[in-house]
Amino acid sequence: xPCECCHKEIESKSKSxxxxxxxxxxxxxxxxxxxxxxxxRNFYENGWVTGTGGGISIRDRERELLYLAPSxxxxxxxxxxxxxxxxxxxxxxxxxxxxLKPSACTPLFIAAYGIRNAGACIHTHSQSxxxxxxxxxxxxxxxxxxxxxxIPKVTExxxxxxxxxxxxxxxxxxEKEEQLESTLREAIEKYPGTTAVLVRRHGIYxxxxxxxxxxxxxxxxxxxxxxxxxxxxxxxxTVKQLE
Length: 243
Ligand SMILES: CSCCC(=O)C(=O)COP(=O)(O)O
Ligand SMILES: [Zn+2]
Description:
Main location: cytoplasm
Enzyme class: lyase
Binding site for substrate: 105
CATH class of the largest domain: Alpha Beta
Shape: globular
CATH superfamily of the largest domain: Class II aldolase/adducin N-terminal domain
EC number: 4.2.1.109
Bound molecules: ligand L4RZE5RM, zinc ion
Oligomer: single chain
CATH architecture of the largest domain: 3-Layer(aba) Sandwich
Family: Belongs to the aldolase class II family. MtnB subfamily.
CATH topology of the largest domain: L-fuculose-1-phosphate Aldolase
């Protein structure tokens, strides 16, 4: 709409806005901005990102960009225009939607990208993840369950075998999400075979080489966390003794 007093100013603002919008507006369903919205709805339906908790970031390896969900908003209602975009090399924001803050998980996502060369990182407040951090001490462990075969070995190609033991480190929670960065980095370094880190009384971070791998790992791990709670309730050890 034309402005009577400052017509030019409004024209130039809307131009720069539309340039920035091009980074996140796409008809391609596989565009990271569209995927973040789709996956946040999926995670919400699973009860993993309710009440604004949790989030996701996706890396565009070709364009060397990071896409990040905004902070403190209902994650299932995010639209592409709400997505932040960061230059992967210098970590400067090249798209900052007005009136929104980037996810407080950003330094943790960056740790997974930097240390593990991840292509996407997911953070959920899954109740199974939280409960497992109350049932296990330093690490979550489970073995001899078929679903373990969906989890990568990480230190070598291929996935774990049915009878392999899945080990996920547990770090202590902090008052602010971003304060988790140093202990998350330590856990990733200490457990080179892990593709996830649990946060006590808080949730879980899961990453993968691509967004789809991260999604599958997150689903498989959540299945195993939920199963482990039920096994404990029934008095069944989560790690099977080898015969
Ligand atoms: C009730 S959410 C508290 C903050 C949190 O743990 C979280 O995962 C949300 O982070 P974001 O900044 O991405 O909204
Ligand atoms: Zn959180």
